[in-house]
Amino acid sequence: MADTLEFNEIYQEVKGSMNDGRLRLSRQGVIFKNSKTGKVDNIQASELAEGVWRRVALGHGLKLLTKNGHVYKYDGFRESEFDKLAEFFRAHYRLELAEKDLCVKGWNWGTVRFGGQLLSFDIGEQPVFEIPLSNVSQCTTGKNEVTLEFHQNDDAEVSLMEVRFYVPPTQEDGVDPVEAFAQNVLSKADVIQATGDAICIFRELQCLTPRGRYDIRIYPTFLHLHGKTFDYKIPYTTVLRLFLLPHKDQRQMFFVISLDPPIKQGQTRYHFLILLFSKDEDISLTLNMNEEEVEKRFEGRLTKNMSGSLYEMVSRVMKALVNRKITVPGNFQGHSGAQCITCSYKASSGLLYPLERGFIYVHKPPVHIRFDEISFVNFARGTTTTRSFDFEIETKQGTQYTFSSIEREEYGKLFDFVNAKKLNIKNRGLKEGMKQSYDEYADSDEDQHDAYLERMKEEGKIREENANDSSDNSGEETDESFNPGEEDDDVAEEFDSNASASSSSGDGDSDREEKKPAKKAKVVKDRKPRKKQLENKKGKDPNAPKRPMSAYMLWLNANRERIKSDHPGISITDLSKKAGELWKAMSKEKKEEWDRKAEDARRDYEKAMKEYGMGSKSESSRVEKSKKKKKKQEKQVKGKAEKKGSTSKSSSSTKSPAKNTNESFKSKEFVSSDESSSAESKKEDSEEEGVASLPPSSEDSASGSD
């Protein structure tokens, strides 16, 4: 028979909430590890007193009772696993796994039994429900009535807050059944009462979460935070972990207390209690106990009189009372020599501490991430500047944490740390390239080197190589480069023509005309390359055969889907790089196969081009002839139009003296300017008519001479 049994997706009932995790049964005892908090419950085999198997809402459950009265409940088993568990309990724990079903009659009267930490309401021999007394926050009595109040469950949408029991009066003299009921509950309930004197008091400590200055009173079973506005009582059983973290300025210390369940203030939950100390602050502490009690309770971990730094005294007292180790940063050192990294999480700036078994961020909001719950990490480029990068962590539950604005000098240290801890790096290929560039320039001037710029250059080279392989290398599609000299010559010609057309106008008009060509010059410069580009695009024949692909592109098109299926979610850039690596690592024999396919495609292309050239030769000659014919006709029409314009001008000049006799006197300047402008307008009209219409007939010319 196997020495161990392991079960995944088992749920432990703790204070009304179901926490999933893994359960392991061995010869030494029972171990349950919470997936959410990482907390481990260890029950020694010698402590087990009873095991009960029963049907519950999530299938079947296992209830374990220990000799000191503690109860542990685990749900999520299948019915077929009973025989295996019963045999294991008999062989290794010498216990019979008893089967007990819950009563489902629906009656609301019965018998209450107190057993260890459990209140059981039974009907006959079957239990109806059980209440762990550690869930009780308060117990009040009335006439024949007892009221139990419970701690609020933050993980449940609806939680049970109160239960009332009616206790009938009895005829026994001197014994009040209501008071006896209440005393049994209070003896095991999680009711915090500040009875007696505190072991020690720390005055006016600076607390970051919850924010303010608090007096901390240390009691044997709980911690009391007393502030000006709020009070908090924290049982030592809710303390999950302790952290002592040095500030980056080397002058302050953080003392972090991880809590589960958290302390509450209204709707706000504080999962971490963070205290900030100055290293220079010292204290002399005297415990409110005699030396014998101190020695008996703390076994040398504390003494009655102690002195030293304030943060050392607080952490030392907490470690002794909570009985948990204090976690400190490991051997990680950042670029500046500090054991943390300055970064931002959400909207606030803080410090990220890489620990031996996880990461912790302080302080707003505090975050603790264990290595065993990390799915992968990712190094991403900063969104606003290349001087920083982002560090992303995604957990197995799908939660993502992004720590941004990390200085790029920290990249090498952080990458080495993550690599040494064997965490899965999402974009490992690119990051290794970045790491090499960082090491290569480690001793150079950091202001002149940008690791992310080097990375983008490498990605640009990859895209350029792929583009060169897939493009047809046709010169017809390229844009013309801007040539200032050629553009200036074209503009000057337009200036000359405009200037000659307006040379006969007045001085006032000439000033206005000289300003207009400057605007035209701007238009010409902007539009001319665009016009040439459009003409080039129109000149390309869509029916022409396409250029053949290279051997690499033929292979990539055939294997692209396979690469995507092997690497789900891969980006286009990463796919291109991965394909390049596979192609580079391919053997010469396999490459020759694709080279042959590329050679066949090239021959087919040359053959198609020859056929296309023979078919299009006659077509091109026909188009050439039609263009020449059209140009010849346009020249003839233009010449006849100019001839007609000259004859009409001479006839109008012979008739002008007769007309002037009937008109008022005009100065020489006025007449010359008026005639020149009218002549220009007539010339423009005649040119437009000549281009738009056929040459005039003989009848039209005769009527014009009259």
From TrEMBL:
Biased composition (Basic and acidic residues): 532-544, 634-645
HMG box domain segment(s): 545-613
Biased composition (Basic residues): 517-531
Ranges of compositional bias, category Polar residues: 695-706
Gene Ontology molecular function terms on file: DNA binding; histone binding; nucleosome binding
GO CC, one annotated term: FACT complex
Principal subcellular localisation of the protein: nucleus
Gene Ontology biological process terms, A to Z: DNA repair; DNA replication; regulation of chromatin organization
Known role: Component of the FACT complex, a general chromatin factor that acts to reorganize nucleosomes. The FACT complex is involved in multiple processes that require DNA as a template such as mRNA elongation, DNA replication and DNA repair. During transcription elongation the FACT complex acts as a histone chaperone that both destabilizes and restores nucleosomal structure.
Domain of life: Eukaryota
InterPro entries: HMG_box_dom (IPR009071), HMG_box_dom_sf (IPR036910), PH-like_dom_sf (IPR011993), RTT106/SPT16-like_middle_dom (IPR013719), RTT106/SSRP1_HistChap/FACT (IPR050454), SSRP1-like_PH1 (IPR048993), SSRP1/POB3 (IPR000969), SSRP1/POB3_N (IPR035417)
SMART domains (UniProt xref): HMG, Rtt106
Annotated keywords: Chromosome, DNA damage, DNA repair, DNA replication, DNA-binding, Nucleus, Transcription, Transcription regulation
Protein name per the record: FACT complex subunit SSRP1
DNA-binding region residue numbers: 545-613
SUPFAM superfamilies noted in UniProt: HMG-box, PH domain-like
Chain positions covered by the region annotation Disordered: 459-552, 608-706
